[in-house]
Amino acid sequence: MGSSARRHAHLHTRFTLDQILARLRSAGMRITKGRQQILITLLNAKRPLSLHEIQDAASQGSGAPDFTTVFRVMNTLEKMQLVQQVHLNRASRYYELLNPEEHHDHIVCTECGRVTLMVEACPVQAYQRTIERRYGYADLKHSLEFFGKCPECK
After folding, report:
1. Which of 27, 47, 92, 152 is deepest in the core (most CB within 10 A)?
2. Domain for residue 153, yes or no?
């Protein structure tokens, strides 16, 4: 992945560490140094991160989590709908914070791996509500990814 793959808008300005920690505490979770480091890593991420990238970045501070801890925490956060998996057409799973106040989809460059966030109105939001009504689902969520060549690679 080239340096352009690191360009990713930071969207979590309204989603703070304290807000996330409050949700974890209300669910009865202990707040360990390792969990805090993982959350700080996700909050500072400029793009979706793999489990190994999360562990590497979270290991920079005190209370460094091992890979098993990162895996378990990410599964828990996903069940709590605080993170989502994005596939980005790659073999590894990638994760990003799921801010309930914001939604974005992704465009991935097939040449350099650059991930661009689509922050304008989601093109399938209205259809998602139709699906909820038609099939009786509630709290439906989606992850939309487009693939092509970025302006620098075309």
Report:
1. 47
2. no
